[in-house]
Amino acid sequence: MVLKSSFTILVVATLAAFSSYTPQAEAHSWADCIDWKFNKAGNQDWSDQGGKCTGYARRFPLGKEFGSLDSAYPNRHYQQDRQNPSTALPCSDRMAGATRGSDETRANPPSKAYGGEYGRMTVTSVGDTLCVRWPAKTHGQSFHPNNKVQIHLSKSRNAMDISQQELLKNTIANLDYKNCNPGSNEDRRPCGGCFKVPVRAKGTYLLQWRWMLNQDEWYTSCADIDIQ
């Protein structure tokens, strides 16, 4: 009787641990596309059938299934230091394992982070509309808060990346995280939002996508945008 009870407890505990682990594998998001173009004006369809990506984050690998890069190597999500998120690295350097995601440090020149196996750099102009896409990763459900996606754009032209503290002074948009396509697969639902490119001199600038999942649990994606 004691053995049976102990076995039951062990099975329940194992199942509980497994069930609590599974959502964590899908618990992150990132900017899948920096410059999404819709097939039809006025129809915000974020699926691959509704448009195409014409500008990507740094070293974003092509040919991957949408929303799959949290389980691919290197994974795409970058979680900033939860103890000091406002002073953490703004872009992943891939130096601390899974929590740093893939490499999004600035290339020299920036164009080296694009082309070939990676997507192209975003090319835009002042006043143009940029639409950014991301996977819901189960967080589009009703019980999750609709935390805003922050879009930061450096004012430093053709320069090294500025700090997270400086980026926080240059917020150009706050987008609804749950602006997603309808669908039953919460993990792979495409979401996105659009904003106008503010006044900047011609040049290359750091753009950051930043989203808080839980209190002080921030995820970011970095991209270079060429303003012409």
Describe it.
This is Chitin-binding type-4 domain-containing protein. Keywords: Signal. With 228 residues, the chain is α+β, with helices and mostly antiparallel strands. It has a single domain, classed as Coagulation Factor XIII, Chain A, domain 1 (Distorted Sandwich). Helices cover 12% and strands 25% of the residues. The chain contains two helices and nine strands; from the N terminus they run αβββββαββββ. The protein has helices spanning 2-24, 164-167; strands spanning 36-38, 51-53, 122-124, 129-135, 148-153, 171-176, 190-196, 203-214, 217-227. The strands form three sheets. A five-stranded mixed β-sheet has the order 3-9-8-5-6, with no helix packed on it. A two-stranded antiparallel sheet has the order 1-2. A hairpin with a 2-residue loop joins strand 8 (203-214) and strand 9 (217-227). The radius of gyration is 19 Å and the shape is globular. 36% of the residues are buried. Mean pLDDT is 86; it is low at 1-26.
